# Entry
Amino acid sequence: MAIEKKAISDMKKYIYLFDEYDEVMAALDQNWDGVRGLLGGKGANLLDATRLGIPVPPGFTVTTVGCNDYLAAGEQFPAHLWDQALEAVARLEGTTGKKFGSVENPLLVSCRSGARFSMPGMMDTILNIGLNDEIAAKLATRTHRPRFAYDLYRRLVQMFGGVVMGVPDEVFEAVITAQRRESNARNDAELDASAWKAVTLRFKEIIRTYTGKEFPTDPYEQLRQATEAVFRSWNGKRAIDYREAAGIDHDLGTAVNIQTMVFGNVGDDSATGVFMSRNATTGEPVLEGDYLINAQGEDVVAGTRTTLPILQLKTDMPQMYDQLEKIARRLEQHHRNMQDMEFTIEQGKLWLLQTRDGKRTAQAEVRIAVDMVDEGLISREEAVIRVKPDQVDFFLHPQLDPDALKDIQPIANGLNVSPGAAVGVIAFDPDLAQRWAKEEGKSVILVRPETRPDDVHGMLAAKGVVTSKGGRTSHAALVARQFGKPAVVGVEAIEIDLDNHLMRIGENLVIEEGEYLSIDGNNGLIYYADLPTVVPDINNPSLLKILSWADEFRKLGVRANADYPDDARRAREYGAQGIGLCRTEHMFFQEDRLPIVQRMIMATTPTERAEAISALLPMQRSDFEGLFRAMEGQPVIIRLLDPPLHEFLPSAHDLMLELTDLKLRMQHFSSLKEMDQALEEIRSKSEILQRVEALQESNPMLGTRGVRLGMLIPGLYKMQVRAIFEAASRCAAEGLDVRPEVMIPLVSHVGELDIMVGPLKEIAREVMDDHGVDIAYLIGTMIEIPRAALTAGEVARTAEFFSFGTNDLTQTTYGISRDDAETGFLVHYLQTRLLRDNPFTSIDPGGVGRLMQIAIKEGKMTRPDLEIGVCGEHGGDPKSIRLCHQIGVDYVSCSPFRVPIARLAAAHAALSVD
Ligand code: ADP
Ligand code: MG
Ligand code: MG
# Structure
């Protein structure tokens, strides 16, 4: 990079004409990326289109090096730059047969900024440079189109006065509005030549009083000032802010494009417009765009006149339409991507003014990628690379119905921080949001100035979240993403009045609490309406194709975390290759089972406990059977019970309250029977309380969980293993291919495994023998305590597979409580950028990732065929997936909804794309 920059700055050729493709390429060693750096995106693409023989109005580009040298010299043109510019203008004169500054046959040009990356905040385009009073007057008479000439002239003065001289455009617009009233004109089109002439005169007066300077009448002076203004705008505040936010280098500089004007406003045989080579919403291979007859430049996007759909041009000017199609196809073939283009038709001649890769929706991206493979434009690898894992999200969340969007304008926009659409009634208060959602079953959108940790319950209850302040790493953004809630933050146009339960947008719009809002987390738009949504369609044919190609390229397996047969079936539909984690505690928490679980915990004799445990067995067996059937032919990892025991018991606090209440009520009982019942109840509740208190730990997260629990109640894990193998044996007896993998959680010392595994294997053997089947299975462990990772060589002597529980591993490595991660100081660390990523979202490569690497290396040294997976939340995160690919993980496991994303991300990792 450094060498390349130096090479560029050594060249003192500051200007390239659009037809000097070979010269530029030679100067940059045929490096197209270098050309884009030197000429900016707009200039490079115009150069390229010219070479392809597409009609581009002649012009030239002043390079980014020119800009940098100008700025470095304290806003002075470097030696020769201006000479070269004059020479280039002379060349344009030669090509066009017109003369810059001539009264008889004037050459007019536009001055357009164009950096490497398109960038808001850079100077706007100035059209029609080269006019003054005299030239305009002559143009009016010579062409017999006085209105045309004076309209051009006033545009020049207006744009120049605005962007070069800094007069606010509102002032100019006010003049035009006043003139319309005076001339009794309904719109600009009805203003005639003399009206524009008057307007222009006033514009110049305004410039004089605002700036103390004259509008320059010398065309060369206009050109010079415009070029300098573009250069200077590189260091304007808006541009700098944008680069800061977007992470763009400040030393790239901008190029300036000077281009012969073509006129779409000469009459009804002229037009100007914008179009895409394919539909940017659906990806359909048809031109999409808008145009205006008899118009110039930005009239189309300005929205002051109603534009016509590009398809209309097919009827209005069939030949022109035909040419547009040809140009679109040619440019697509060349760029191998969908193009976004600007064109002008001047008296029946078509000109291309700009082309670049078009922005599109996720749906269009996927469709276009697949179509382009079919058309032979790109390879399958490239198609897979083009679709970003995040874009797959689009197919997994509800979206606003595109048909409904046609008739409605958004009322505001903000940052699109969490994808998907949400529709609901506004609540300004998290408690209210929770009440409406929970008690009244309403869909709620929580709207807040910003959110804080104590708003989280409201966010969770809401369908979507909006804040008027805050950025991409604000608390609201982080929490919303974490929980998959669609969210739009930093909607500056919204002014929230919490006291009066309403919000204001602009001068006139007041929206009250309880009214409907629809938000689109994909693009940050907000609608004042109760819009219909469309359910996600993961079965979009193009997406399925992309995913199946991704499967061909990826090395990592993708499994799902699923606890119920329904989850497992969905996971399979989404492409999961097995279950990486079934959390059996979810089965224990079911209502009909809880009393039995409690009985097991409360048991005072071994017999009592054994009875309770056996009561659970048939239930577990049928759970597992369902899973095995749903995942036939694929591995199913079942994790033995993990949570701390006290979680199954009522809280000590509640028990104490109940006991006090019972004791108080004793004095009011009249019958002895009632008294006896109450005494009995007090006895049993006190017993439970005692047990709860005995099980209470000051740090339950670091307490009797996982295998530690299994060590205390050995019958529990034995029962689970029996249930697993009874279920598996039943399926196997029917001829089904079952592949159970038994996972022991929270191991920190190989001794724990050594004690557990022998007896469990015996049970498995016994059950299989009883059923007369022989099933291949694995017994392995989670690696979620640093000690287990560091002693992996020993652990692998007993464990046949590892699965990294990255949530706990992050918690124990970082020493950050995962339960407080969304609310605590971690948010502060992220906001201040001390941390780039939330370690609970993306695996921390330096700490957790390094432990994983050690565990994989040492584990495989002991047991070369050790199977290695990841089953934490990270399993669905593209960045973490990349890391997993790099360090030799065999598969990742994530929630069923993330499976398609993981498949694509794994392919990207294998194709090594950032
Ligand atoms: P932006 O980056 O905002 O699109 P552009 O430089 O592309 O700015 O120009 C703004 C408008 O002016 C566009 O509609 C463009 O097509 C038009 N335009 C620019 N240069 C010329 C020209 N030489 N002749 C005719 N129209 C032009
Ligand atoms: Mg613009
Ligand atoms: Mg443009």
